Amino acid sequence: MKELGRENRPVDHPEVSARSVGKKETDIEKIKKEDIKPIVPVDDGSVFVFGINASDRQKRKLGPHSPNFGELDEGAAEATEAQYKDFFDGIFADLSPEERAKLDILVIASAAPLRMPGNVRSPHKRSVETADHILAAAKASMEEHGVNPDQLMNKTGKPIEITSGRLADLKMWEDSPKYVQFLYDRYGDTPQFWKAYEEDWHRDLREEMGAEGPEEIADRVSDYMATLSHAMQMYHVRHPGRKAVVVVNTQYDSAAPMIKKYVLKRPVGEYVPIEKSGGVVIQTDEHGEMSTTIEGKDYPVSFEKLGSQEEALRREQAFLESFFSANPTERMTAEDMLAKLEAEPLDREKVEAVVDRFLERHVRHKNGQIVFVGSGSGKSTTVRNQTPGPDEKTDLVDADFVYRETGAHPLLDTQPGEPLRTFPWWFMGDEVIAKVEARCSLVN
């Protein structure tokens, strides 16, 4: 086992940020709240506000035995609402009443709770709490500028909570408690704990223990933003002439690596400070090119999905073989699957009954529609645990749930009372994928 050791570094002042220890030079001084400037989206385009949670430093000092540990600091809620009220006001001020009627707003937040060294955890979700106040600011600005509240895409009045972990700050808390314990034993609850992780001082040991590193965080968050960007492109195809502002709120530990790698094009181990409530505004031009401006300097932005096609194919083949080894009675070829789908056409009455059940549990949108979210790949987890509104309904339906219950997705054999499980058809080649997607289209 090879370990990359590093001397502990002193902190000159107790208020120095944990990330400022051993600071390196970068192109910018700091990503600030002032970098979140109002930008009007182009027609058929979106603007993405990618920011971090409001201040929680003072409440952290209360300790885990306090019910207020991990919530936003005093005054942070009011400051967030004022900041984003100015932001939305600035956008609406540049639009005519007719153009305002074409602007939609969506607010998304990481559902990760606060975690600290020493197995300390708070139930408070800092980004969700921040996003609550961003939504309040959006509603106030919309009302003041005569904008129809239906243009807020969060129909329950709550942020869309990303519970899948794609926007989580540090996944090592769950994925590798051994590595967390190693860092804690070596550095304690000190700035060096965070610095050792962010600069990857013990990379070989981290990889051996299966912990996610800063490069992987950058790629994970970029992958989510690429998915979100694609989803908004599809939204504009289906709603021509509209604009959208999408606010994504997360934490420093997930935001900084992505910004360093995919915006600043800097090594992820370098220190880039982000002020609490700070972030970047990513605009899309009429050609679909993305960019942002930080401290007056323009940066091109290009989000990437994880891995090459060759790598994805290898992963898929390995997954299928692992799946068949664990479920030998389910082993079949692509030809077998195509024959199975031909022999089991969709039952129209069953489809209508399933959709009726979902209509009862979810918010009705324009013309009575319910909104389906997800690729339909059978793997989506993004919106399954969205917090219901006061009427116990949610804005969105995970499309995979509907496809599964209607039988549009091929299912594994289950016993009565067991939850339905989808066969991993998405790994069985283009013909099977096209056939299943056609069945899903019938459900749609």
Keywords:
alpha/beta, two-stranded antiparallel sheet, 15 helices, 444 residues, globular, 11 strands, single chain, disordered N terminus, 39% helix, Rossmann fold
What's this entry about, in short?
The protein is an alpha/beta fold. It is built from 15 helices and 11 strands.
What does this structure look like?
- The chain has 444 residues and is α/β, with parallel strands linked by helices.
- It folds into 2 domains: 284 residues, Rossmann fold (3-Layer(aba) Sandwich), CATH 3.40.50; 135 residues, no CATH class.
- The protein has 15 helices and 11 strands.
- The protein has a 7-stranded mixed β-sheet.
- Helix 6 crosses helix 7.
- The protein is globular and about 65 Å long.
- The N and C termini lie far apart (53 Å).
Layout of helices and strands, plus pairs?
Blueprint: E1 46-52, H1 57-60, H2 76-93, H3 97-100, E2 103-110, E3 115-116, E4 120-121, H4 126-144, E5 160-162, H5 172-175, H6 177-187, H7 191-198, H8 203-208, H9 214-238, E6 243-250, H10 252-262, E7 279-284, E8 290-294, E9 297-301, H11 309-326, H12 334-343, H13 348-361, E10 371-373, E11 396-398, H14 399-406, H15 430-443
Parallel strand pairs: 1-6, 2-5, 2-6, 10-11
Antiparallel strand pairs: 1-7, 3-4, 7-8, 8-9
Whole-Å distance between the termini? 53 Å
What is the CATH architecture assignment of the largest domain? 3-Layer(aba) Sandwich
> What's the helix-strand series?
EHHHEEEHEHHHHHEHEEEHHHEEHH
Low-confidence stretches: 1-25, 375-385
- Write the CATH homologous superfamily of the largest domain: Phosphoglycerate mutase-like
Query: What is the typical, i.e. mean, pLDDT?
Result: 82
Total number of helices? 15
* Helix-strand makeup class: alpha/beta
Helix content: 25-40%
Which percent range describes the beta-strand content? 5-15%
CATH class membership of the largest domain: Alpha Beta
Instruction: Please tell me the total number of domains.
Output: 2
The rough form would be described as globular
Query: What is the fold-level CATH name, i.e. the topology of the largest domain?
Result: Rossmann fold
